[in-house]
Amino acid sequence: MKQIIINIVSFILIKSGLIFLIEKRIFRYRSLKYENKSIIPFLKKYYHFIDYFLVTVVYFKNYYSKIKNPKKQREISFSTLDHGEGVKWAKHYFEENSKGNIHRKERDDIYKKTSELIINKSLNNKKTLFINIGSSSGLDLIYFYNKFNEMVYLSSDINNEIIDFQKGLYKSHDIHYFIGPADQVAENLDALGKKYDTEKIIIFCNGSLQYEIPFFLNRGLENLNKAKIKFFYCLAEAFELKFDKTDNYNKKNILWMHNYPKYISKNNLEIIWQKISKENQVYNNSINIIFTNNLTRDI
Length: 299
Hints:
This protein has 299 residues and is α/β, with parallel strands linked by helices. It folds into 2 domains: 2-66, no CATH class; 91-292, Vaccinia Virus protein VP39 (Rossmann fold). It is built from 14 helices and 9 strands. The strands form 2 sheets. The protein has a 7-stranded mixed sheet, with helices on both faces. A two-stranded antiparallel ribbon has the order 6-7. Strand 8 and strand 9 (285-292) form a beta hairpin. Helix 1 (2-15) crosses helix 4. It is globular and about 60 Å long. Residues 295-299 have low confidence and may be disordered.
């Protein structure tokens, strides 16, 4: 009965267009909650029942996740990081976690294995381009920059605001920048290799692909499969052990769960190392993968 009522109310709010009257505030849902403010303008503080229902249940679950046009879905996802929102979170990650220690402790394996890859494959040189996808505060990139200072570094994120924030932070660092999502980086991989006169590429992605629409995640992997330059893709992403009838599903708001091993295999790319953080834990898990576009043995 409860679900029936939720579906009816959601249907009315979406079909009448009422939910779209507060769409711009919905795009700010993360910062508003963090600031203890409601998406309803006249409410003085965040009310979990009201805000969660309107944002997570009505807008994202019953509208956004059911949109058939992936371009429209991506437009909405990106809108949650426009108008200063992406910069707010980049600042939050930088100021609250200036050395990146907490983030690395949570997903320590991918940092260790990426470092081992660089050492074992002798990649710390000017012929290697290191690309950080969805770099936000830039802390992941700086971690490797300080540890392996011979490589060429490229920071990538989806809009100018985030990239400009990074440029202000790392003025004294020799870092290049690319504005665009993961699939566009993949599409331009050969051109980027040529532009920076490199022969091999490391792509590092920590928690960014979970915000990719399934369509664009797959398109990015298709682009990678076409790349002629040698690359190693190192990723750590949220993961759940419940892929039965589908290889992806909308978890919450703009967060998606993807069956990364299945997607990678489907696009004829080779996983050379993989580790699920908690083997028998269905929820609140993560997966670490390094894959490449040729036959390479385990690290």
